[in-house]
Design a protein that fits this description.
Order of helices and strands: EHEHEHEHEHHEHEHEHHHH
Family: Belongs to the DapA family.
Protein name: Dihydrodipicolinate synthase family protein
Shape: globular
Strand order of the largest sheet: 1-8-7-6-5-4-3-2
Radius of gyration: 18 Å
Binding site for pyruvate: 208
CATH topology: TIM Barrel
Distance between the termini: 32 Å
Number of domains: 1
Largest sheet: 8 strands, parallel
Strand content: 5-15%
CATH architecture: Alpha-Beta Barrel
GO molecular function: 4-hydroxy-tetrahydrodipicolinate synthase activity
Active site: 138 (proton donor/acceptor), 166 (schiff-base intermediate with substrate)
């Protein structure tokens, strides 16, 4: 029987916390995880861009999935990102995720090789057909150079477990194109923090968020207020949030968002090489943005019951 996920809501792409000696910091990770759950998020995504997937070993990914599944204890789905160069390795990662108790997968096109239309579709189908887990396609041509086009999605309709898309094309009108062509067949989750309110208003079902790692309550509040039709209240928070959300669309988003997590008391600054921690003018500039946000942080309306 095909599994399913409720793809509506806020899905943090959580960072992977490290210690000073470059081990996974499960204590700090658990603290952040608890903050996400307390704020009312609707799922947890592991091993994405923010999770520093490219520098994690398969063993570390397995440890993260196992730990998160245990701590979340069924409250929300746990989703593992798959970003591999070989189809066979992607299939293996899907199999491992299923065995470890993950609820679903987020799936990028092939890494490193720029596959064409036919190759991209076959890659997605091969992984989808190898697992019963629900899948969200990650469509990010800006960073990963392959666009998953509407014609590709038309061929992926036959895979029942391909249920959603992380929409990161940075073209807001793509939400409407998807809905016009496919109706409700694919759930659409905004994957770019700076476009979240716009895409949610255009009918996106969810938000794969980045700054939620440091500001979980504000992120969930915006989502729930929008869906409850309280647009003015959501807009006030969103306008305050935008300078912080812009940290999500820089190549150093990992370092920037981890610095924000430290500022809000739910993270560590350590990153894994080749990334390096921020220093000098750059660090001061990003801290200035974060501290300005903290100094003007809004009082949130009651949103948990919306």
């Amino acid at each position: 029987m095909m599994a399913t996920i409720n793809w509506n809501g806020v899905f943090p792409a959580v960072t992977t916390k490290f210690t000073a000696n470059d081990r996974i910091d499960f204590y700090a990770f658990k603290k952040n995880l608890n903050a996400q759950l307390s704020a009312g998020v609707d799922g947890i995504i592991l091993g994405g861009t923010l999770g520093e997937s490219s520098v994690l070993t398969n063993r570390e990914k397995a440890e993260l999935v196992r730990f998160t599944v245990e701590k979340v204890a069924g409250k929300v789905p746990v989703i593992l990102n798959i970003a591999e160069g070989a189809t066979s390795e992607a299939i293996l990662q899907a199999k491992n995720a299923e065995e470890l108790g993950a609820s679903g997968l987020m799936l990028l096109p092939p890494m490193r090789y720029k596959s064409d239309h036919r190759e991209t579709v076959e890659y997605f189908k091969a992984v989808a057909n190898s697992t019963r887990l629900p899948i969200m396609i990650y469509n990010n041509p800006v960073d990963y150079k392959i666009e998953v086009t509407l014609d590709m999605f038309a061929e992926l309709v036959e895979c029942e477990n391909i249920q959603a898309v992380k929409e990161s094309t940075r073209d807001v009108s793509n939400v409407t194109r998807m809905i016009n062509r496919f109706g409700d067949r694919f759930k659409i989750l905004c994957g770019v923090d700076t476009l979240a309110m716009e895409e949610l208003l255009m009918g996106a079902h969810g938000w794969v968020a980045g700054l939620v790692c440091a500001f979980p309550e504000e992120t969930v509040a915006i989502f729930r207020l929008i869906k409850a039709g309280q647009i003015d209240e959501a807009l006030e928070i969103y306008r305050w949030f935008l300078p912080l959300l812009e940290l999500d669309i820089h190549p150093k988003l990992v370092q920037y968002i981890k610095l924000a997590e430290v500022a809000t008391g739910i993270g560590t600054e350590y990153v894994r090489a080749p990334r390096l921690m921020l220093e000098g003018e750059e660090r001061e500039r990003i801290l200035g943005i974060i501290n300005q946000g903290l100094a003007t942080r809004p009082v949130l309306p009651e949103y948990m019951s919306l």
